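WARN no homologs supplied; continuing
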Amino acid sequence: MQYVCGIEHTVTALILCPGTLMFAYGGHACFPTFQHDMKKPRDFSKSVIVGYSVILIMYLPISIFGYLVYGGSLTGGSIIPSLQVKWVQTAVNILITLHVIFSEIIIMSPLSLTMEELFKIQNKFGIGRVILRTIIMIAVLLMALTVPKFGPILDLIGGSTVTLTTMILPGIFYLSLVAGKKK
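OK structure emitted
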């Protein structure tokens, strides 16, 4: 076993790491749905650039300054507990919370739209949509509360289904579409 920055590195961790990484980028499989739902789909690239820019603005400063100040002396996977100024910890936690909230809304959109179609709920604001989306969020919350260690599930899903929907199937679908046009 090797320790780098106080974190244990094992063969098991090395094998599970790609699953975690793929889970982190799993939301990209939803991009076609987002583009389809836009009023001006041709502006999709602009929205992606703005979205990634905002995330960089939120995360990059704390990462850079944290590394410059603490370097390799960190003892855990997160830099936040090492920050000694309380308002900086609070600001970082608020930015991470905002990112998670906005990501949750975006990532849950395809599921919500599919469920609305399944239950024949109109695609406009109404009590049916509010109730269904509330039920979906309660189910997500119950899952989060009942699964104490999400890491192994994250690795399993990230290494299997997310890898398929993010890396393998889009290429296959694209090739199928191109082949269909040529026929």
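DSSP finds six helices and two strands in the chain.
OK
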